[in-house]
Amino acid sequence: MAEPLVFLPGMMCDARLFGPQIAELSSEFSVMLSPVTRGDRIEEIASGLLDELPQRFALAGLSMGGIVAMELLRRAPDRITRLALLDTTPLADTPQAAAAREPQIVKVRSGRMHAVIRDELIPSYLGPGPYRNEISELVMDMADALGPDMFVRQSRALQRRRDQQGTLRKCRVPTLVLCGEHDVLCPVKRHTFMAELIHGAELRVLPTAGHLPTLEAPAETTQALRDWLRQPLILR
Questions:
Q1: Is the CB of residue 233 less than 8 Å from the CB of residue 82?
Q2: Percent of the chain with pLDDT over 90
């Protein structure tokens, strides 16, 4: 694969979310990571990334990163050579889901970001693997690095995101849809539905992981990505 691989991290995460994959794949592929922190709407974030990214690239996004990846695909399908969507969703926030973000935003603005992430988000992020404590600490460290203002901005962007089912129906590049079996935020049935929307997509479910398979099942996730990167391109 000649094109670079671009990783897009999830909400309140940075390059460390893909640390194991960057370490393993960078000897074989050109790898870069782009933050999803610059913009107040998903559309604005995607527009800014398109000004910086290579002319053609493979794209892998996890959670919010996957949501931004779908917006990039909607805006510039000819620039994306292959797509990997990890533990994400093509659906817009329901009114109930959007409303549920409000108490979290209030708590974060009042200085309780640690409590929100520790008590509300991490329990729904991680499966029953042996490294829950270590991954939890890393999640907290990444959130600390980005800070409460970014939590609010990203929450607002997710509240206002568009539905991308139509975008995925038009996708004609090699696509990997991957999730952890224990993902509560974006369950397996959501990924099965997503894979069915995309022509020729491959669905992989990792039995030991939750919402963060790049950290919970790093070897399995890396192998799935390596297999995807070695697939022949589908002509448009």
A1: yes
A2: 93
